[in-house]
Design a protein that fits this description.
The structure is a single chain. The chain has 342 residues and is an all-alpha fold. The protein has 16 helices and 3 strands. A 3-stranded mixed beta sheet has the order 1-2-3. Helix 3 packs antiparallel against helix 4, helix 4 crosses helix 9 and helix 8 packs across helix 10.
């Protein structure tokens, strides 16, 4: 069932939500450091085990790649928090750790930080799509698009491409090169990350051999990329999400209705760094990942958002286009029923 458009009762006022998040926006150094320990130590151990497992069976290596990918997703959350300046109090510390973790997740820090900031500033705005979001067309746009573009959009929205081929290409290839207009620091961030990755590959080749490095790194990256893109997809592409034209777009409504509360089992919530509380994160990116649960528990206004379960998130795969008439996402099979303004 769709959530209704924003009303005074459905979306908190600016004062109320600012008060709700205010006491959770300060990083706690001890908790940040503990997260680094409880994530990096097992990740390194798993890498050592995967190296040794190559002597036994590559199937064992692939089995170990699954939890290793989970820890890499968690490392990406730290990288993500650094980009928002919420992992450490010091911006310099955030930038340094963001650059380091960016190398581990094959993502240039400053370039990604800029694109992600635009995503937060424009999420749910139909007139400002295209940066840091999932390609979403309206019903009208799809109907009026040339055949090649409709075909490309269907391929993009085909799950094996969206969650397997697409993330692999983006993380391993596309993020290696500057695209569009970028300031010198963002462009330098890309080339510096590429150079660092070459250095890592050379060092690992010397230590364990190039073949062993590739056989371990690629499956870990592919699995982590699939999970990461799935999380990002579900957080904005779901039944009842919010899209609006710029003149009617509202920041708080876009956060509370256009970013999901993805209710996950505890173990998955831990690996994903509480990012399922995405409505809170979009209201205040300054809340560190380890304080999102507490912020949610203490504030009824956030608990009013209907959670999306794992099963409900799977059903979101059938939603592809935004119908401006009915104000909801529809599937390709519903095109005939969807109405469009003349």
């Amino acid at each position: 069932m769709n959530r209704k458009p924003a009303t005074d009762g459905a979306t908190p006022g600016r004062t109320s939500w600012r008060q709700a998040v205010a006491s959770y926006q300060s990083p706690d150094l001890r908790r940040s450091l503990w997260q680094i320990v409880n994530t990096f130590v097992p990740y390194i151990v798993l890498w050592v085990l995967m190296v040794r497992s190559l002597e036994v069976s590559y199937w064992l290596t692939l089995a170990l790649a699954v939890p290793a990918a989970g820890f890499l997703v968690r490392i990406f959350i730290f990288f993500h928090d650094c980009g928002h300046g919420s992992f450490f109090k010091s911006q310099r510390a955030n930038d340094i750790f963001g650059i380091i973790t960016g190398i581990l997740v094959f993502t240039p820090y400053y370039s990604w930080r800029h694109a992600h900031a635009l995503h937060h500033a424009t999420a749910g705005d139909l007139d400002r799509r295209g940066v840091g979001d999932i390609w979403t067309m309206t019903v009208r746009e799809y109907r009026e698009a040339p055949l090649w573009k409709r075909f490309a959009y269907r391929v993009f929205r085909f799950p094996p491409f969206t969650f397997l081929i697409g993330p692999t290409v983006v993380f391993l290839i596309l993020q290696r090169f500057p695209s569009g207009e970028k300031v010198p620091r963002e462009r330098m961030s890309i080339w510096a990350t590429d150079l660092a990755l070459l250095g890592v590959a050379a060092a690992m080749s010397f230590a364990i051999g190039l073949e062993a490095y590739v056989l371990i790194q690629i499956p870990v990256m592919v699995i982590a990329g699939m999970v990461g893109v799935w999380m990002f997809y579900v957080q904005h592409q779901f039944e009842g999400t919010y899209w609006e034209r710029h003149e009617r777009w509202d920041f708080a409504t876009a956060a509370m209705q256009g970013a999901s509360f993805y209710k996950l089992p505890r173990i998955l919530q831990w690996f994903s760094g509480n990012i399922g509380f995405h409505h809170i994160h979009h209201l205040s990116p300054k809340v560190p990942n380890y304080k999102l649960q507490a912020c949610f528990d203490a504030n009824p206004i956030f608990q009013q958002v209907k959670p999306i379960t794992v099963w409900a998130s799977v059903k979101s795969l059938r939603l592809h286009l935004w119908d401006e008439e009915s104000r909801r996402l529809v599937g390709f099979g519903q095109l005939k029923a969807a109405t469009v303004r003349a």
